[in-house]
Amino acid sequence: MRLRSETISAAIKYATRALVMVLIVGIGVLIVARLIATAPEPERRAPDEGLRTVPVAELRPLEVQRSWTAIGSVRPVDAATITAEVIASIARAPELRAGDAVVAGQLLIELDDTDFRLQREIAESRIEELESQIEQLQTERQVLGRQLELEQENVTVARRQFERIESLFQRQASSQQDLDAARQGLIAAELTFERVRERLSLIPGRLTTTGAQLRTAQRQLAQADQNIRRARIVSPMDGVIQFITAEVGLQVQPGEVLARIVDPTRLEVPLRIPATARRTLAVGDEVEITADSQPEHRWRSRIVRIEPEDDVRTRTLTAFVRIDPTSNNPESGDSLSVGVLHPNAFVTATVRTGEKRQRWVVPRRAVRAGRIMIVEDERLRSVPVIVDFTLEEKLGAAGLPDEQWLVLADQGDLQSGMLYTVNYSAGFLDGQRVRPVAHQQINNQAADPDSED
Length: 453
Known about the structure:
With 453 residues, the protein is α+β, with helices and mostly antiparallel strands.
């Protein structure tokens, strides 16, 4: 009986627990149903509205010029370093200082030319003496020439006389004494003839010696005249004095630098350009030069010549550009650039080659770690690219406001018409689904925020 009672109590306890659990579950179900019934209707979105929007641009070739960046320092085309050419002391120096303008032929320094004028007088006297000697020798040659002719006739007469006496002696019609006298007369005539001929033969040598002495004296005269001219040191060109050393009484030596004149109106820039640019550069290529001291000023010019050899140490070539520093600044439209460019000023230049080619051009921000993101079927695909060179200018044909561009090497993976992301984000992944939007639409929306309402 007791066992039966315990069994009934256990059954009631389990039934009570089951009932409580059912009630709790039912209440929970009712609460969930009520929440579902009273929940707001969720906003329905298109399947692609959850994708990331990326601005894209169409890849197409553009006609561009290869450009190179070069550096150099300005130097004058016309400059003169003036040195002393004689040993003398400074006698007079006009009041000229560094920065003063001079013209060609203007006196800079005058040296003492007293010794040179004395040398000139001595040379002139010597020339007169030698010219007189030459005249005397020429006169003597004429006299001896005539005398030689007479002595020749005398020899002929003496020989005939001897031959006649000898013939008479052989026929015993003349004495031995007459024959000896005739022989002595012939010998005397021949000796006189030889003496005259000897004296005449010496005349050319004496004329040669005297002529050489005359030419030496004439050179001494010319040297004295040249030294007199060198004593007047003048400016060889129009320009501005860079420096001048002129202290009265100071003795100068040949080769001693006294002044330097430069022409600041004609300037030249030797530009150092990478040696790999040689195959693309040519005389006449455009160059834009910027002064480092005032980068707002620019000068446009062209290459006038290129050195034939490369510098093996720096692996560069040198191209020369002529500049007119007095021209107005083409960028600012004013004359503030006058005087900005001067000799020894350091400049940076952009050299544009004359050849234009169709190349792939993308903004610098579209490339990251040597790769560009292409959008195909709303999915991203990274493509490796090789940058050939860079450009820093506005390219209206590209349709983007960028000023920094990368010109890519020709690659088979790139094709015209491909869409690429204008901004390569670090969060882009290969295969990631995105919603490509033309960059013009994004720019328009940014300019007009109410356009979507």
